[in-house]
Amino acid sequence: MKDLCPENTLESIVRAYEIGLRFVEIDVKISKDKLPILLHDDTLDRTTNGSGLAIDYDYEYIKKLDAGKFFYKKNTNIRVPKLEDILNYCITNNGNLNIELKPNKNFEKENTYQIYKLTQNINQIDIIFSSFDIISMLEISKLYPQSIRSFLLDDFKEYNIDDLINISINNDIKICGLNIDLVSTDIIKKIQKTHILITVYSDKNINLSSAKAMFSLGVDSIFVDNPIHLLGKF
Fold first, then answer.
1. How far is CA 196 from the centre of its chain?
2. Is the C or the N end of the chain the one with fewer CB within 10 Å?
3. Residue 2 has pLDDT above 80, yes or no
């Protein structure tokens, strides 16, 4: 949704459900006072008018920042939301979430624990946990083994496809997420033999032809930044 609205904001989530999406992916990490908030980067610089590491600031400061100016190129009243508020909105509006565990360096376990505390008793909506960070992935698997989880790989530098499969099987992780540049027929077939579901994402929006190609290979779902052109096609 980041091509349609400011990413990781209530506005973007509302829009996603309005156009008919069943799942929305959000990035979550903790502030200095250990409140899970929606933010992709380590720092506040790119998506707010603040600066510095989010982990260095309490939410009382972060909530005053403009989280829409970077997108609209003018001052807005759009703020960095708390995960708790987003969960309440999604429950009220029957919207499902994919929560990507974004690691704050040296705070990965605390980050995961605080997110777990907020989500452990939620059963009104479906929640998937995903992460590129192995510490976060193993921690959520330990804390919340009954949860649905997805291990993400952007490249094969640190972990190869066999590592991904072994980590997933050993920790009962049912889904994997791959950068679209990693996808091939052989890779898909190898993962499918393990009955692990496959999601695909890209640094750029995935167009209709690319989406069709992915599904024809056997991919189970895709992440898109602008889903408008894919609605009603699958």
1. 18
2. C
3. no
CB 224 within 8 A of CB 205: yes
pTM given for the model: 0.95
DSSP reduced 3-state for 30: strand
Is residue 205 very low, low, confident or very high in pLDDT (cuts 50, 70, 90)?
A: confident
List the domain range (segments joined by +) for residue 223. 151-234
Among residues 146, 173, 201, the one where a domain terminates is 146
Could you tell me if 212 and 233 lie in one domain? yes
Task: Please say whether the dihedral angle defined by the alpha carbons of residues 65, 93, 143 and 40, taken in this order, is positive or negative.
Answer: negative
**3-class DSSP state of 35:** coil
In this structure, the number of other CB atoms found within 10 A of the CB of residue 64 comes to: 12
User: Do residues 142 and 157 both lie within one domain?
Assistant: no
Does one domain contain both 112 and 91?
Answer: yes
Q: What is the CATH number of the domain that holds 161?
A: 3.20.20.190
How far does CA 126 lie from the centroid of its chain? 14
